[in-house]
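hey m, so remember when u said the tokens were messed up on ur end? i reran from scratch. heres the input so u can diff it against urs
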Amino acid sequence: MNYILEEHQLNLAFSGRDAAVFVYRPENVNEVLPCLIMHDGQNLFDDDRASFGFSWKLREAIETYDLQLMVVGVSCADGLDRLDEYSPFYNRDIVGLREWLTRPAGGLGNEYIDWIVNDLIVWIKERYAVEDSFLMTGSSMGGLISMVAMCRYPQIFSRIACLSNALWFAPAEMAKLIESSTVSGNVVYMDVGLAESQSERENQAYLDTNRKIASIWTNKGLSSFIYREVAGAIHSESAWSLRIGRILSELLVENR
């Protein structure tokens, strides 16, 4: 099956920025397809476009696993603005945890998800034949905001995959949101690498918070829940590229 990659520009009115929206789809397919929405869209397909010089190599994953779907990737905001959009929870305590964390961040995650639902999905359905419910995938803060999306719109985002999740950003708030959500029958995949960070303290924060949130998901009556701890996996597109094909294949075969 031949796929084509399109690039569009869409405005996020709540923040004022323009985002690159990448659509990777089969060239000649008449059937209605599953649609996967992904965050950090600039990092999905091409190394020379990716923020850190290495992409998820999503083309290769789709070809290797013969995945029948359409992917819509939305590029992220720059710097700390990315954290603002990828969390509805405002964190005042991150300042100084790393040298680039120079101000509090978060707080615009609900607006970002509402934009996906009310603007991006409408735009998608006007142009492409896709299923009514969507898959969503993200890594790090993108994993956190994917969980938020399912909790807020469980009928729209029925299957999510969340990799190397930066749940340390707001573990108590995320736990409360999941506990109060109605997601019975949905599908959740989440994982964390055992070597996310070279800092022992930071690495432990990834492990502790992912384990805590995984324990909450197990009690939500999901149709399927998979949690993995990946030996040797670091916090990088290079690590995510090695497992994304298998993950998406598992999501697509789940009963919908």
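this time it looks ok to me. The mean pLDDT is 96. if urs says something different then somethings off w ur setup not the seq
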